[in-house]
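Tutorial, part two.
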Amino acid sequence: MSQVISIRVPEHYEEACAEFRKETDTADGNGSNKSVEHEFIIFYDDSAHEIRCEGNIPDSVFSALVRVKDLFGGKLFYEGEEWREEDDQAVTEARPLEKVWLILAIIFFPVTLIYLLLRVVVWVPFKVWKATR
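Running the prediction step on this input gives:
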């Protein structure tokens, strides 16, 4: 899936580019970056003071953009809209007791459905048949 993520750094643009290149281990100029799973292009726009990444962007490049934003006070854009951390949904790992309840729910929900189905389809008609006999 192709994405466009960019960061605009109005002040200290050159330092932000250098830090981004250092974080991602990329070459100095514009170019295509390929790996086994990811193919993306990084653009450095001097006139708009923007670093833009397009393509299948790995998490390491996104986290480098976030670090550069935090260091130099820029704005991060995802698909043309400003991205804010409070808009992002934080995913936390479940505690051990929550994991146990989840596993038990996964196991016993189908068992309960089968029990209810058999009770309605077999036991109730049997009791009705026996009572009317």
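The chain has a mean pLDDT of 82. In part three we will examine how such features are distributed along the chain.
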